Amino acid sequence: MSEDLEFDFSNDNSGRLIYTVTQISNGIKLILEDSYPAVWIQGEISNFKLYNSGHMYFSIKDANAQIKAVIFQNIGINLSFVPENGMKVLVYGRVSSYPKRGDYQMVVNRMELYGKGKLYEAYEQLKKKLEAEGLFDGNAKKPMPYVVNRMGIVTSQDGAALRDILKVAENLNANIEILIYPVRVQGKEAEKEIPKAIEYLNSHHKNLSVLLVGRGGGSIEDLWAFNTESVARAIFASEIPVVSCVGHEVDFTIADFVADMVSPTPSAAAEMVLRSGNGIKKRIEFLSESLIEAMNFTLSDCGAKLDRLASSRALTKPHLIYEDKISYLDGLDNRLLVNIRRAFELKSEKVKNISHKLDIVSPLSVLKRGFSVCFDSANKIIKDSKNVSAGDDISIKLASGTLNAEVKSCEKAVEF
Question: Is the pLDDT of residue 108 over 80?
C-alpha cells in the first residue's frame, strides 16, 4: 500500500482504520487510472467551455449519466473541428480524478465525431484520388461572373438553406431570375439526384450566371452526399460556375474542394454572389446618372456661351467692327504719308548738300570763273606748253562752248 494510504491511529484507541480525505482522494485517483488507463467513450458534448488558457472543459453524457472531461491546450490545438454542445463524439483518454474537489473526470487525448471512423477513411481515400486527378486544381476553377442575372439553386425545397438564400436575395432587392431544382440532400437518393440536377441545368439552362449547390448543417452522415464521387465529378464537369455552400462554417466536404468557389453557409453564398452583382449594377446606375448630369451641364454651358456669342457686337453690329478698322487704317495711311514725305524731304536735303559740294569741286565751276581747258588733237588735256608745238591744232573748252585754234608759238614755262 502507498504511503498516502497508510492509516493513522493517533486520534483513536479503538483500533479502527482512519484515513484522511486526501488519502481517500488519492487512492480513488490511483484506482481509476489503473482501471481505465486508455478507453474510448461515446456520448454527447454538454456544458462546453473554452478558457483563455486554451484548455477545454465539458461533459460527455448519454440518456442516463454524464462524465466530466477536459482537453488540455497542447491536445486541443490538434483538433480538426471546434467542439460544440450537442455534438455526438467519440473521445479517447484516461479516467482520472481531481482530488481537491473529489471529482472524477476523463482526460481526453483524442476526439472524433461519432461515426467518423469508416466514413472519414472513405473521405480521405476519395479526396486523395480526386486530388491526384486534378479536380482540386486552382487552374481548373471557373471565375465568378461580375454581374449575376440568373441564378440556379440545387438544394432541398423544404430545407433552411433555400429559405436563407431567398431571404438574402429579398433583402438585397436583387433583380435577378432564380431557378430552383429541388433535390434530396442526404441519403443514397441524394447521391443520384444532386449530380442529375447539375447536369440538367447545364444542358437546359446554359444561360445561368452561377449555380449554388448545398444544404444546411448536420452530422457527417447528414452531409455525406456532398462527399461522394458522383457529386464531385458533376460539379467539376459543370460549365456553369458552381458555389459550394454545404453546412456551417465548421463543415468541409469534397464538394468544397471541387467547386469554383466555397462559402461557409448557403446565406453567405447568396450574399457573396448577389452583393457583388448588385454593387456593379448600382455602380453602373450611378455612373449613368453622373454621365447624364455631366452631359446636361455641358450642354447648358455651351448653350449659355452660344447665347453670349449671339448677342455680341460681332454678330449684332458687325459694321461697327469694320468702321473702327477703317478709321484705324486711315490713321495708319496718314502716318505713312507723313513719314514718306518727311523721309523724302530729308533725302532731298541731303542730295542738295552733296550736289553743292560737287559743284564746288566741279571743273565747270572753275570754268565759270573764267578759266578754260585746252585739248590737243588727240583730245587729251594739255597740261604743259612743251607738250605742243607751233602749228598744232588745239581745242579750248570754256564755261560755255569750245574754241578751235592753231598754236602760233609756244612759250616755255620759266622755272624759278
Answer: yes
Q: Phi-psi bin for 134: left (phi > 0), alpha (psi -120 to 50), beta?
A: left
Those residues with Cβ within 8 angstroms of residue 184's Cβ, 6 or more apart along the chain or in another chain = 156, 190, 193, 225
Cα 321 to Cα 325: distance, rounded to the nearest angstrom: 6
Give the span between the Cα atoms of 237 and 393, in whole angstroms.
Answer: 139
Angle at 107 between CA 101 and CA 113, to 5 degrees: 130
Same domain, yes or no: 161 and 238? yes
Ramachandran region of residue 370, left (φ > 0), alpha (ψ -120 to 50) or beta? left
The three grid cell numbers given for residue 252, joined into one nine-digit string? 468541409
**What is Dmax (Cα atoms) for the chain?**
209
Give dist(CA 240, CA 211) in Å, integer.
6
Alpha helices for 172-213 (secondary structure H) = 188-204
Domain of 34? Answer: 3-114
Question: Regarding beta strands 56-61 and 66-71, do their DSSP bridges make them parallel or antiparallel, or are they unpaired?
Answer: antiparallel
**Position 147 in a domain:** yes
| φ and ψ of 396, to 5 deg | -120, 115
Name the residue with higher pLDDT: 229 or 357.
Answer: 229
Cell reading at 353:
548738300
Domain total of the chain? 3
Report the alpha-carbon distance of residue 34 to residue 31 in Å, rounded.
5
Q: Distance (Å, rounded) from C-alpha 315 to C-alpha 305?
A: 14
Least confident of 31-40, 157-166, 233-242, 343-352: 31-40
The one-letter code for the residue type at 299 is L
pLDDT at 281 over 70: no
Question: In terms of domains, do 8 and 29 share one?
Answer: yes
Residue 280 has pLDDT above 70, yes or no: no
The answer on pLDDT for 14 being more than 80 is no
**In this predicted model, what pLDDT tens digit does every residue of 168-203 receive, in sequence order?**
988 887 788 999 999 999 988 999 999 999 999 999
Global model pTM greater than 0.70: no
* CA Rg value for the chain: 62
- The interaxial angle of helices 229-237 and 188-204, nearest 10 deg, is 10
Q: Over the stretch 358-401, which tens digit does the pLDDT of each residue have?
A: 777 777 777 777 788 888 888 888 888 888 888 888 888 887 88
